[in-house]
Structure formats: C-alpha cells, structure tokens
Amino acid sequence: MSGIIGKKIGMTSIFSADGRNVACTLIEAGPCVVTQVKNVETDGYNAVQLAYGERKEKNTPKPLIGHFKKAGTTPKQKVVEFRDFRVEFEGQVDMGKTVISDQVFVEGDFVDAIGTSKGKGFQGVVKRHGFGGVGGATHGQHNRQRHPGSIGACSWPSRVFKGMRMAGRTGGNRVKVLNLRVLKIYPEKNLLLVSGSIPGAKNSFVILEK
Asked: Is the whole-model pTM more than 0.70?
C-alpha cells in the first residue's frame, strides 16, 4: 500500500531538537477498510481500494451499498484506489481488513499530501493572479486600481488569445504538496503530525502517499 486516507484536523507548531519552531498539520489518518483488491491477472495492474469515514446507508447509492457489503463493512464516505502497493503488505490487503496509520508510515517518512484547496468564489485578477492593477489613482484613472487593463490587440488578431489570465472562480482545486515529513505518529488515536501546510479546510479529506 502506498498511502492512506485521512481528515485534516488543523494546524499547530512544535519545537524541533535544534530549537526551531516548525509549523505542522494534524491529520486523522484512518482507520481505513480494504474494499477491493486488484491484481495483474484480473485487472491488469496491482491496486488496493481503501474506504474511510462513516456514511448513512440511506444516503448511499445502492450499487455502493452492495460493494461495501461484499467487503463486509458499513457504507463509507471516501473511496480511493492506491496503485502498485509494496510486496510487504501482501498479507494486510485482504478484503475487509482494517489499515491504520502506523502500518503504512513511520516517523521520519516523507509523504505527498493531496487535498482540495479552499474555494474563494469569483475573484479578480489581482487576487487570482497577483496583477498590480492599472496604476495610480490620478491622471484620469477612476475606480480602476484593481482592473486587468488591456487584454488584446486591435484589428489583428481581433480576438483574445486562449489562456489569457483573467478574473474567474478561484480555489476548489485538487492540490498536491510534495515531500512533507512525518514528525510524530499517535497510533492509539490514528493521528499523524506532518510538517508544513496541507491544502483544504478543517475536516476535509486528505490523501497521503509515500
């Protein structure tokens, strides 16, 4: 298994051995349930499907209810497939088995965190792309300090080029942050303390990969 599903609890900071104050994120990693195991013979590749978070049966589609019952577990909120799990996890990836954080990670590991960034709605070019605005407030400028300015040419090409950075909906994207160190593991509470910040709001789902 190359990772685990978790939930972002919030941010805090700890002091390192050399006295530095290190910002870190607290993640509830697991427990996850193995709901499907894929192999080369039947599916063409090795993969493990993990499920995390309880979900009411009345809010679960019937095909998923059958899928979870086949694995011998209750309906879950989040389902993620992890490809190419390592050989040493062969005995731990049977259907219905529970996976916890200290079975996948050890302190000092480097992980990649995947989350959905906070949605900020429709934003202008200054906030979305860091534009400087049109200019000063004098010399005929009126309420244009945060405007995009000119976006195209004249009679040629008579259009706006594709990919032009303009105002639009910001945030709510899938973001992957690389090489975060696992600082501390609390196996009795399924908690991981990871260095740095992770995209997403509190209580949002996070995918951790090795």
From this structure: yes
